[in-house]
Amino acid sequence: MMQLSDSKKIKGFGRKVFNSKTEIVTASKSLIPIFSGSPVSELVDEILRENEYIRNELIQNPNYRELLEEKVKDSVKKYTSLLKGAKAIDHWDRITSALGLASEFIPVLGNVVSALEEGIELIPKAIYALKYKKIVGNKTDLKYWGAAEAASFIPYIGDFIDMSNLYLNRARKSIKENIQKDFLTLLSKSRNNSLEKKVRLN
Question: Which of 78, 87, 151, 168 is deepest in the core (most CB within 10 A)?
Fold first, then answer.
């Protein structure tokens, strides 16, 4: 016969499951925006905050800021579709992972849902990876996402990984790196052209 204490434990477990589901579904609705304001201003400010060399270059020559802004503007046009794609994948990951994590409380169902979840996610992610490789050309990101996807099969942990804005954060990071690299190349060419003009004048 069931004891009163056992009944309380079952009710307590039920409340935990319900609360967990509620928290997961709430979390699945929250997704960081691609940009909180102007894409150009935001990326320029982030680059200057993160790259001390470029920041010092702009302090010494404020005119270089316009050059950096032009490079960022061109990059935003080039990479917008990739950023939107990354955001869409992260959003879908959050929804499916919320369902998957909730189903983990029912062992057999949890395994079935988890397998279906990963299978459904695979096709759009594979298409995105091909497009990303073609436009950005960063194989390290693809390996990073591949490792994260492998880890996503781990019960509970995998679902939390899928809720971490994995694709958007990584895409933004690599795109900023590309912008910085292109800007420094442009800066070097600009200086060489200026030097050539001075030599010709002399």
Answer: 168
